[in-house]
Specification:
It is a single chain. The protein has about 270 residues and is of the alpha+beta class. It has one domain: Hypothetical protein, similar to alpha- acetolactate decarboxylase, domain 2 (60s Ribosomal Protein L30, Chain: A, 2-Layer Sandwich). Helices cover about 15% and strands about 40% of the residues. The chain contains 8 helices and 15 strands. Strands 1-15-2-9-4-5-6-7 form an 8-stranded mixed β-sheet. Strands 10, 11, 12, 13 and 14 form a 5-stranded antiparallel β-sheet that branches. It has a two-stranded antiparallel ribbon with strand order 3-8. The protein is globular, with a radius of gyration of 17 Å. The structure holds zinc ion. Zinc ion binds near residues 67, 76, 211 and 222.
């Protein structure tokens, strides 16, 4: 399946001035940075490119924490501690076989030593918006993507998932009209996801995109709203960005730049 991926774009944010990330300070950054890999683009999903292009097994070699979706847009993907989980539109959460395929994902290679190093960020939020503001205050460099892992205790939460689609695939804005929303009043679990700067517009959703997985692995999905007390386990700048693009299939013919995409992302992801 990996043969479908021809083009690898690697952007390493490491050239330049001493104050920026460099080969020399890489060693000291071991606990505070990590490498990001993106499969396809979110805009390809907007344009109905739901065909899996990398297997879960292959994706696990590229990251240990992350988010995405599955072949035919079958649910929300949560990668947690090297395992991949699927939050289905039925409400159930299942562990995913290595042979399942994935059309879009963002994953980061994060070691246990980085999780153990943790952060000093904790508190309570009344809304997702409050949480975003609290995290943003702790980002020192707004112009690099960040991976964020946040533990929640007794959270009040609303998540969504989407059902698998059949060809001819409808556009994502149509699919989310039938999204399934799940709520929980008192749940423990972890939010995993990414912050992308505005200049990533065109290849991803900018701002925060987070998925939830409960501690008992029975509840999860794409985060819509949350409140409760939290502890940030990791907030890691991603100075290295690797993007894998499909060689063929729907992606090759899709219209991947459209001014309407920004508005559509607000409708489908927020
Ligand atoms: Zn999502």
């Amino acid at each position: 399946m990996i043969k479908k991926i021809l083009l690898t774009i690697t952007a390493a944010f490491l050239l330049a001035a001493p104050t920026l990330h460099s080969a020399e300070n890489k060693a000291s950054d071991k606990n505070t940075s990590s490498k990001l890999t993106q499969i396809s683009t979110l805009q390809a999903l907007l344009e109905s490119c739901y065909e899996g292009i990398i297997t879960a097994g292959e994706l696990k070699k590229l990251g240990t924490y992350g988010i995405g979706t599955f072949n035919d847009l079958d649910g929300e993907m949560i990668m947690y501690n090297g395992e991949i989980y699927k939050a289905r539109a039925t409400g159930e959460v299942v562990k995913v076989e290595d042979s399942q395929t994935i059309p879009f994902a963002n994953v980061s290679l994060i070691g246990q030593e980085q999780i153990a190093a943790g952060t000093e960020i904790s508190g309570s939020c009344g809304s997702f918006s409050d949480l975003k503001n609290a995290i943003l205050k702790n980002i020192k460099n707004y112009n690099v993507p960040h991976c964020v892992i946040i533990n929640f205790n007794s959270a009040k939460i609303r998540v969504r998932s989407v059902p698998a689609q059949k060809r001819p695939y409808p556009r994502l804005v149509e699919v989310v009209k039938n999204q399934k929303v799940f709520e929980n009043d008192k749940i423990n679990g972890v939010l995993i996801g990414f912050y992308f700067p505005k200049y990533f517009q065109g290849i991803n959703a900018t701002g925060f995109h987070l998925h939830f997985l409960s501690t008992d692995k029975n509840f999860g999905g794409h985060l819509l709203e949350i409140s409760g007390s939290y502890n940030v386990a990791a907030l890691l700048p991603q100075y290295e960005f690797n993007m894998l693009l499909p060689k063929e299939g729907d992606f090759a013919k899709a219209r991947l730049y459209d001014k309407a995409h920004e508005k559509e992302i607000n409708r489908v992801e927020k």
